[in-house]
From TrEMBL:
InterPro entries: LpqH
Domain of life of the organism encoding this protein: Bacteria
UniProt keyword terms in alphabetical order: Cell membrane, Lipoprotein, Membrane, Palmitate, Signal
Name by which UniProt lists this protein: Lipoprotein antigen
Recorded GO CC terms: membrane
Amino acid sequence: MGKRFVAAAAVGLAAAATGCSTNPPALGGTTAKVTVNGRSTGGPYPVTCIQTGWLWTIKTYDDQAQGFTASIEAGDEVTVQAVELRDLGGFTGTFWRDNLGEAEVSSAGGTYTITGTADGSFADNPNETVSTPFGIEATC
């Protein structure tokens, strides 16, 4: 009987671990479209949308790979706090409120639209810093 209990417990733990995994949802879930310099960068990209207090973080799944992370404060006034673009359209750059670039956000029905400029560089000329327009439309 002890062996059966151990086997049943192992199966239960494996099922619970599988149920808690963080694999990206199928398309149609939370996704985002991104433009750099007015051009599509592909996608839609699967994203996570996490709310902590008044702060929303919208990001692609792999923080090290091609993608983005955006932080939006949603209080009385909705403002973009930061955007990091990683190798999207060959561009890697950053917006930081009151520091680098400019950005604004609008929201309607669970969709956030962020537009602005980020400071960074293109892969074909990584030593030249440029301010480049970007757009993110994320459905959370």
